[in-house]
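Open question from group meeting: does this chain pack into something compact, or does most of it stay loose? Before anyone orders reagents, we agreed to write out a predicted structure and look at it together. Recording both the input and the output here so the notebook holds the full record.
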Amino acid sequence: MLLKKSVGILGTGAYVPERVLTNQDLETILATSDDWIRSRTGIQARRIAGPEEDIATMAAQASRQALENSGIEPSQLSFIILGTSSADYLYPAAAIRVQDALGLSGQAAFDILAGCCGFNYGLYLAEYLVAPEGKYALVIGSDASSRFCDWTDRTTCVLFGDGAGAAVVGPTLQGGILASFVASSLNMNLACATEFNCENSPFLPHQATTARHFLQMDGPEIFKFAVNTVKVCIQRILEMARIEREDLDYLIIHQANNRILEAAARFARLPMEKLFVNVNRYGNTSAASVPLALHEALQEGKIKDGDKVLLLSFGAGATWGASLVEWGK
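Structure tokens returned:
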């Protein structure tokens, strides 16, 4: 639905770990090759969080940059929303740890578990939380999926990298979010179980649990879901905003796989130059993917004031969502 009061993205930030894991590095530990990975995914390298890093420390780095770029002081924030699928703690929420790292207390800070769609879910919530009273929200996507990968399984571990992206959301004098939605439907083709299940019981013998938390994925089925979902999202957001495909100026789509991005560009009838791509450098950074790509696109001057920018993601759950933003502050 269209909002009467303009709410937009006022500033962005991003953080990726220093350590780079290339396809050539993976050749030394897996039965794989650079050509096999690139031809199927477009990925050439990914970043891996160091032992001193986690989703909260990466999120805090991205958040400080977003606040600086927005011109908003941390004390002006009313909400901190963090999307992640790789929490270090079930509680406290990573968003509260970011709140503390920013020297804050008293705001509403919470995590969202919506797979790789976590940032879009957070942005959707923030849009409606800040609109009534002109407040400000910090929306973050941060994941360290490398810690949930089975590094002997070449079908999954080659895909993921670590990082964080953030955006400050609040009242804007021009442009803003024109239309947005989020959605979900049960799909167990991408799942990650915890080690805390019915086998952990005082009435049962002790069970080894070291491998239970590895993510599991049916790649071909997820690929089909992703391509179809991108088409559904684009069509739905166009109808909500009452615009045509030709009115889209730039696409920021979840960086899961280069072939999915190419299919999206074809369906939107936009050249690949109008769709940001960094999956080759970072792999799939899960909830960090969209805000990280958005920040880099802005830094590279790909997005101009007045542009209609589509932010779109899909993830485990299954979840999907999109926001159409007319750029400007």
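Observations to bring back to the group:
The mean pLDDT is 91.
The two ends are 21 Å apart (CA to CA).
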